[in-house]
């Protein structure tokens, strides 16, 4: 949950603090956890005791603070493998025992982690990678849009075209062309909503 959504949640439910955590089925439990009473806004917290977490680039090199890459985890909470499926295990857990989550993240100087996107959900438009989360966050800044989702529409010529689904705010009206123009005016050429 990003900073803006967390702030909206606090406002809507009139709560002072929101604590986030991060985990997945393959990690058994949460491997990142915000301190009791809340951590940094928009963060999923810090590494839990006994676990190791790193952020890597496309070549598998560990990245430093504020550098975005794939989140990887290692430790006693990680699954041993996919039962009866060694190929899936090899595609998920590397030879050193790190599970590759498929989530794009970064950490700050205080070692708080922030999830920013999904590696496997990136839209491939020509040779460019388009992050759906970036377009969704931008769409949510429009005064007539309450919610949004962006996916890749398969296209033989270019790979995928960014396609947006939006929910209008009650009492507001907006056309498809207005949504497309709103995005086109704010993003680079490859990120435009060519899928509609």
TrEMBL record:
<dbReference type="InterPro" id="IPR025110">
    <property type="entry name" value="AMP-bd_C"/>
</dbReference>
<feature type="domain" description="AMP-dependent synthetase/ligase">
    <location>
        <begin position="3"/>
        <end position="81"/>
    </location>
</feature>
<protein>
    <submittedName>
        <fullName>Uncharacterized protein</fullName>
    </submittedName>
</protein>
<comment type="similarity">
    <text>Belongs to the ATP-dependent AMP-binding enzyme family.</text>
</comment>
<dbReference type="InterPro" id="IPR045851">
    <property type="entry name" value="AMP-bd_C_sf"/>
</dbReference>
<keyword id="KW-0576">Peroxisome</keyword>
<dbReference type="Pfam" id="PF13193">
    <property type="entry name" value="AMP-binding_C"/>
</dbReference>
<feature type="domain" description="AMP-binding enzyme C-terminal">
    <location>
        <begin position="134"/>
        <end position="191"/>
    </location>
</feature>
<dbReference type="InterPro" id="IPR000873">
    <property type="entry name" value="AMP-dep_synth/lig_dom"/>
</dbReference>
<keyword id="KW-0436">Ligase</keyword>
<dbReference type="Pfam" id="PF00501">
    <property type="entry name" value="AMP-binding"/>
</dbReference>
């Amino acid at each position: 949950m990003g900073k803006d959504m967390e702030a909206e949640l606090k406002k809507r439910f009139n709560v002072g603090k929101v604590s986030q955590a991060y985990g997945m089925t393959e990690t058994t439990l949460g491997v990142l956890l915000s301190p009791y009473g809340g951590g940094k806004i928009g963060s999923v917290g810090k590494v839990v005791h006994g676990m190791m977490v790193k952020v890597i680039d496309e070549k598998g090199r560990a990245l430093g603070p504020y550098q975005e890459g794939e989140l990887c985890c290692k430790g006693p909470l990680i699954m041993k493998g996919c039962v009866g499926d060694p190929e899936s295990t090899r595609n998920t857990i590397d030879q050193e025992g790190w599970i590759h989550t498929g989530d794009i993240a970064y950490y700050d100087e205080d070692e708080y982690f922030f999830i920013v996107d999904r590696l496997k959900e990136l839209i491939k438009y020509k040779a460019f990678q388009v992050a759906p989360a970036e377009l969704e966050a931008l769409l949510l800044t429009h005064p007539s849009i309450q919610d949004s989702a962006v996916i890749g529409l398969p296209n033989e010529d270019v790979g995928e075209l960014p396609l947006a689904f939006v929910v209008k705010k009650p009492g507001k009206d907006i056309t498809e062309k207005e949504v497309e123009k709103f995005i086109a005016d704010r993003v680079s050429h490859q990120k435009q909503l060519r899928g509609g």
